[in-house]
Amino acid sequence: MPLFMTLSWIFTAAMIVKDIVYEKERRLKDVMKVMGLGNAVHWVSWFITSFVMMLLSVLLLVVILKVAVINCSTLAVCVSQLEMSGFIVP
Fold first, then answer.
1. How far is CA 88 from the centre of its chain?
2. 20-25 long-range CB contacts below 8 Å, 24 or more apart?
3. Best CA proximity match to 9, nearest among 45, 44, 50, 67
4. Confidence label for 87 from pLDDT (cuts 50, 70 and 90)
C-alpha cells in the first residue's frame, strides 16, 4: 500500500510537470500575455489545475484506505493488515 501511495503521487506530479513543459515549449504564457492575461491570473490557474489533479489522487487514496479498514472483520485483523502494509510499525 505505501508503494501504491507513492506511485500515485509521482504520477500526479509527472503529469503536472508534463503540462508545464508543454506550456514552455509552445510559449503559451507569452501568447497569453500578449492577449492581456495577467501574471497573477496565470499562477492562479496553475494552482487550481494542480490542486484539482492532486485532490483527485488524494480522494482516491482515502477511499481505498477507508475500504481497506471497513473490510476488516475484527480489530486484530485490521491491525495485522496495517502492519503488513507498512502503516503501523510493530
1. 23
2. 20/46
3. 50
4. low
Range 27-57 burial, b when 16+ CB lie within 10 A, else e: eeeeebeeeeeeeeeeeeeeeeebeebeeeb
Where are the chain's structural domains? 2-85
Q: Are 15 and 53 in contact (CB under 8 A)?
A: yes
Q: Which of 63, 59, 39 is nearest to 51 (CA)?
A: 59
Q: What is the pLDDT of residue 58?
A: 87
Specify the 3-state DSSP secondary structure of 38.
coil
5 alpha carbon, distance to own chain's centre: 9
pLDDT tens for 30-83 read 999 999 999 999 999 999 999 999 998 888 888 877 776 666 655 566 666 666
